Amino acid sequence: MDSAKRARVEAWLQYSNDIGLGPYFLNRTASPASIAAATNPSPMMEISPAKSIPAATRNIPPAPATTVTSALPIISATLGPSLFEAVERIPGETLNDIRADLGECTRCRLHKTRNKIVFGVGNPKADLVFVGEGPGHDEDVQGEPFVGRAGKLLTQMIEAMSLRREDVYICNVVKCRPPENRLPEKDEIATCSPFLLRQLDAIHPKVICCLGACAAQTILATQQGISKFRGEWFDFRGSKLIATYHPAYLLRNPPAKSEVWKDLQKVMAVLGLQPKKR
Ligand code: SF4
User: Fold this and answer.
1) 176 lines ligand 1 (CB under 6 A)
2) Cα 161 from Cα 268, distance rounded (Å)
3) 57, exposed or middle or buried, with CB in 10 Å at 0-12, 13-18, 19+?
4) Cβ 117 under 6 angstroms from ligand 1
5) For ligand 1, atom 2: residue with the closest CA
6) Residue 72's Cα: distance from chain center in Å?
7) Distance 195 CA to ligand 1 centre (A)
8) pLDDT tens, residue by residue, 119-166
């Protein structure tokens, strides 16, 4: 192929990748590892393509500059089988069905040190679901998510949105407390998170708000740092999804509250909520 034609083909392939369509030219029957290697030249999955070709040199119109469009390359990173692709929707499944299926779960090592399974709490028909990382000490004792200091802050955030805690649904990626509050391991997340997906499918909220990197990275199947895509909108199995910082992070870093409030205001705009009057 001559160099001019080659440049045009490369420009189109890059463009399709930029707007989230690519890389459709990959062999989808290839192994997950080879797909990941081909789609993610960097282990951190750069949002901006490392070899981005300026629109002016492509002879093709630039993609509209919306937040969703700018975030799409992250979603395209899930072309390899994500944790959730193997999870089929089960029509009519309820949260009670899922809890019953979970049972006194011993599917991963976290069961050995837990006191109580922390399944989730709130409105089974909520428009808004918050997803955190995993239970801490207080949650492990009480069997309810977000009841410690970070939980009190989350409750304040919910109330600032003119909602009550019981209006929303709150759950975590893993249902048992990781010892010493360490991060959940990959295999623990892989084992437990399908139950999270089933919860999200059963509730089918308008908005999913991921609290912290673990929830966002798990659901979006990305390893990017949350600061790269915090506050951006994604489409996830028919719900709008946004990621913001975890309340525990806000306790350590109060100035970040203003950033989180901006994210929550975006959620409020989608849900038609007005800030609580003081
Ligand atoms: Fe089961 Fe999830 Fe607890 Fe692991 S973390 S034991 S998969 S409920």
Assistant:
1) yes
2) 7
3) exposed
4) yes
5) 192
6) 13
7) 9
8) 999 999 999 999 999 999 999 999 999 999 999 999 999 999 999 999
How many angstroms does the Cα of residue 185 sit away from the middle of ligand 1?
A: 12
Q: Is beta strand 128-132 parallel, antiparallel or unpaired with respect to 207-211?
A: parallel
pTM of the model: 0.73
Domains in the chain, CATH or no CATH each: 3-79 (no CATH), 95-271 (3.40.470.10)
Taking the alpha carbons at both ends of the chain, their separation in whole angstroms is: 67
Is 241 close to ligand 1, i.e. is its CB under 6 Å away? no
Contact 153, 97 (CB under 8 A): no
Measured by CA distance, the residue closest to atom 1 of ligand 1 is 105
Q: Decide: 53 and 10 in contact? Cβ < 8 Å.
A: yes
What is the Å distance from ligand 1's center to 16 Cα? 39
Number of H helices, E strands in the chain: 11, 6
* Spatial distance between the Cα atoms of 251 and 267, rounded to a whole number of angstroms: 21
Mean pLDDT of the chain: 79
Which of 102, 171, 177 for mutating ligand 1's site (highest number of atoms within 8 Å of CB)? Answer: 102
**Residue 275: which pLDDT band, with cuts at 50, 70 and 90?**
confident
List Cβ neighbours of 91 (8 Å cut-off, separation of 6 or more). none
